[in-house]
Amino acid sequence: MFASQGWCGLAAIATSAVGADPTNMFAPAGTPANSIFSLSMLVLGVTSAIFVIVSGILIYVLVRYRWRKSGDKSEQEPHQIYGSNQIELSWTVIPVLIVVMLFLATTRVIYTTEHARKPADALDVTVIGRQFWWEFSYPKLGIVTANELHVPVSDPSHPLPTYLTMSSADTDHSFWVPRLAGKTDVIPNKVNTMWIDPQAPGLYLGQCAQYCGVQHAKMLIRVYADTPQEFAAWVAHQQQPAVEDPRVAEGRDVFMHNACISCHTIRGTVATGRFGPDLTHLASRDTIASGSVPNTPENLHRFIENPANLKPGVLMPPMHLNSHDLDAVTAYLTTLK
Amino acid sequence: MATQTPAIETHNAAASKPSRPLWLEVLHGWVTTVDHKKIGLMYIGYALFFLVVAGFEALLMRIQLAVPNNHFVSPQVFNGLFTVHGTTMVFFVGMPILFGFGNYLIPLMIGARDMAFPRLNAFSFWISAFGGILLYYSYIGGSGLYGAGSAPDVGWFAYAPLTSRVFSPGHSTDYWTLAVLLSGVGTIGTALNIVATTISMRCPGMKMSRLPLLVWLYLVTSCMTFVAVGPLTAAQIMLMLDRYAGSHFFDTQAGGSAVLWMHFFWIFGHPEVYILVLPAFAFANEIIPVFSRKAIFGYPAMVAASVGIGFISLGVWAHHMFTVGLGPGANTFFVLATMVISVPTGIKIFNWLATLWGGKIHFTVSMLFAIGFLFQFLVAGLTGIMLSVAPFDWQLGNSYFVVAHFHYVLVGAILFMLFSAFYYWYPKVTGRMLSEHLGKWHFWLFVIGFHLTFDFMHIPGLLGMPRRIYTYEADRGWMIWNMIVSSGAAIQAVATLLFVFNMVWSYFKGAVAGADPWDAWTLEWSTTSPPPAYNFAKTPTVASRRPLWDLKHPEDPDSNYETEQHLPRSSQEESL
């Protein structure tokens, strides 16, 4: 019935072996997450040992010194013991030694993570937390996107980390992708940095870890670790201007003549708003609504009709478009590959 | 006076026999009282009411989280629930219930007739009580004149700038601010009273070195309150200035600092955890020895450890801020400070174990809860060590692992020890025993519910589930754990109802307790149950830490040993 901490940890690791947990911190896939994992195993080992010893003594004492009605004919009180300086000293010194050991191990990981040397070819990404989505921009590459962060995979023999420079446009947020690194808070009026180096290609999930308002729960993060070729192709594609497809000119007109443009940017058009996600390559993303639903025409249609349908508390208002305009603008947005 | 008072009592009783007092008279008696016992009971009753209310809020949240993408409550309602649940449990359950026990017990344990400042005592209670009412009034008046009411939804630590008027329009945040502010005023008043009472009201012979450990710990906790509540109150006033007078302390859009609020809040918030847990230690220090039939092991070490915890706890607050970006230097300092606090905490656990060692342990319901406390506090301490390791905290911080950890402290340690204290002191307060039979049901149901909920709550945290989300994605593998957690919550609710029923039933039908049902050793057991308004007909005089032991064992009193307190009582072969 009494589950120990070590047991909790083991259960989590056991379930991770099945591969069903995309945000398991005990399935690290990058250097910071790896060094935290090793340190956490040390800590779990030490605390589990303390748990076993102390709770073992507790159980022994409870069984050995329980009062037995039958065996205790005498009404006598047990022998009174008031204390012992030697014993007090021993159970002060031993914990102090354990603390020193854990402290030194911890300090090493703090400095190797927070004071890591930045390679010259590291990728820079600026992360802006917003209610309730993420803006990712690549200042040296001229790319702005949202919620789906593409980074190159990092070969351990030739590390290629991505450095995230982070701040918030409104309330506090926290960037947390457990398989890649610990979380770092994203705070307005403060610039924080962290780095990630996914070592295997694939998709890494995470989400905002600091309560930021109504829709904190659906402020999800998707990090795509691309092979060098994939990443180069993705960059080249994102640097293209928005697709101009004459077949959806009507939807484009709806977009450009409504309030959409005051919040959204579509590069090369009059839409230069900065309040909502950049839509230049919206259709190249897998999800909408901060990663909470797949980017299908149906979901897009529902979202534009009334964003609160999919994400109650979202700051985008319902645009009250008639169904014809709604269909047209949805068709336009689906062409923005 | 002392000889006259009983005579007056009997005269009154005889005069009022034909007609029982009107309920209005009873009410008037309670509202205007300055008696430390009645104020203590009002604190406890008030806290128990809010315990049930905030527990109900927790149940609503657990229903919402039982399955992914649930629509049981809206995100707005959920965010209000966790804010009000946290605020209520800390400020309007934890603080008042602990001060209630302190109020009731401290004068009785030091042989005094009341607290040092009875009227300040009443003022502190009522101001705290109005704080709680103000918090809940937000559900009616939160949005101001033109909207429906709304609960504050900024989280119990209300990080800036979410509390600014831009992000929190309406008045719900103001109700939260004022509620916490008022409760802080009451807290300071009561803490002041406890310190003054302990310093100046002790009966003859009760030197500080003979003070019951419970009173020592309340003294430490009250001194910590002076340091901790000030910054919180200051921060609340600054927040109000920001919201209504155009200042920019926390207004990041005008150059204010969000991190400043975090420092202010946690320099209160972390000592607060120890302010809440030290009284639980205090109960354990009285209850574990009595049911082991042995003196507490290492009294001086226990006092030193408590004072040590008090001091160190003032320097650990930024372990709540390892992810804020304070830099490796600050992080390293707070790692060390936080880890060091585990040393005096460990000393306490070891001393309790040594007290049990060689005793004759009586498994009353009170003792069962105390043993649950020992076990769960051990676990909570160990998860605390994990969280003190800053890099591990970068993963665990703000996840459900943290939620599990602090509920292990607040429920597994503090609430268990409170239940233990209820079973232990209820006979003194009411003159009747709580039913041990119902109590055993209460204990086992609560233990099962607690471990289902809070053991399994660690796991979704390790699997990446952040706290304060009203729903979660189905593909994250969190559902099974959340189902188990929610089912445990339901069992705990049943157990708590059983406890409430036991309290009511035993008040009328419980076995008559007598003055000293547990064969205990501190002064409160030397007077009648319930104690008269004046506590002691004759001010007692004590010669050791266990005055009633000395009375019961005149052939072998404690006072023979306390000058050489570290030597075992008899020869060396009987030592550990």
Side by side, the strands of the main sheet of chain A go 3-2-1-5-8
How much of the polypeptide of chain B forms β-strand, as a percent range? under 5%
Count of individual helical segments of chain B: 18
Distance between the termini of chain B: 49 Å
Structural class of chain A: alpha+beta
Largest sheet of chain B: none
Q: Whole-number radius of gyration of chain A?
A: 28 Å
Indicate the CATH class of chain B. Answer: Mainly Alpha
- Kindly name the structural category of chain B: mainly alpha
Spans of chain A of at least 5 consecutive residues whose pLDDT stays below 50 are 1-6, 14-18
Rg of chain B, nearest Å = 24 Å
- SSE succession of chain A: HHHEEEEEEEEEEHHHEEHH
Q: What is the overall shape of chain A?
A: elongated
Question: Helix-strand pattern of chain B, N to C?
Answer: HHHHHHHHHHHHHHHHHH
Instruction: Using the coordinates shown, work out and report the CATH topology of the largest domain in chain A.
Output: Immunoglobulin-like
Number of strands of chain B: 0
For the record, what is the CATH homologous superfamily label of chain B?
Cytochrome c oxidase-like, subunit I domain
